[in-house]
Here is the input.
Amino acid sequence: QKEVEQNSGPLSVPEGAIASLNCTYSDRGSQSFFWYRQYSGKSPELIMFIYSNGDKEDGRFTAQLNKASQYVSLLIRDSQPSDSATYLCAVSPPGNTGNQFYFGTGTSLTVIP
Amino acid sequence: KAGVTQTPRYLIKTRGQQVTLSCSPISGHRSVSWYQQTPGQGLQFLFEYFSETQRNKGNFPGRFSGRQFSNSRSEMNVSTLELGDSALYLCASSLGTGKQPQHFGDGTRLSIL
Here is the structure.
């Protein structure tokens, strides 16, 4: 079982819709969760991070964390064609004294104009 | 504030050779992590350095090694290159205290002929 799992997609949504991206993780003690966006041929760019159960909002982006169910999601409201990219979920494992992350393989999102 | 700088951007090598990649972190960041990204495997953690010490190590063979200098700049070395080492190598820096977000450089694309 992989530490972090994401649906690889592709996920297609029309412009203006809400895109919902999901991520599950295997280690129940994980405490730090990150979402990155990666455009084709580019490096990952940090979008949001969340440490506590519940929702965290930043502009059109909302991260949701449910530790009991071991999933974290990213909602993109009013999706734009420029949001078309691969979204990577990253989790920092428990008991780790450093800053090691486990990444999912990413979900490809296409926003259709 | 300058971002994470990786050099070179592209490299072409042949099997059996060795290669050294360089990463300069964001000013003030003391943690540098290295990742290998391939289409099939996604982002795989190689190792993390903090204050010139390797703090975490992923599941890669000993041909992959790294080091960090007193100014936090880091290098990664791969010896006896194999065809399967063709990948995008990404460096990410963070403050390194606690579970801080990582910020990625543009990567070095390594091709093995």
Remarks:
- The mean pLDDT of chain B is 93.
- The two ends of chain B are 37 Å apart (CA to CA).
- Chain B touches chain A through 24 residues (CB under 8 Å).
- Residues 64 and 78 of chain B are 5 Å apart (CA to CA).
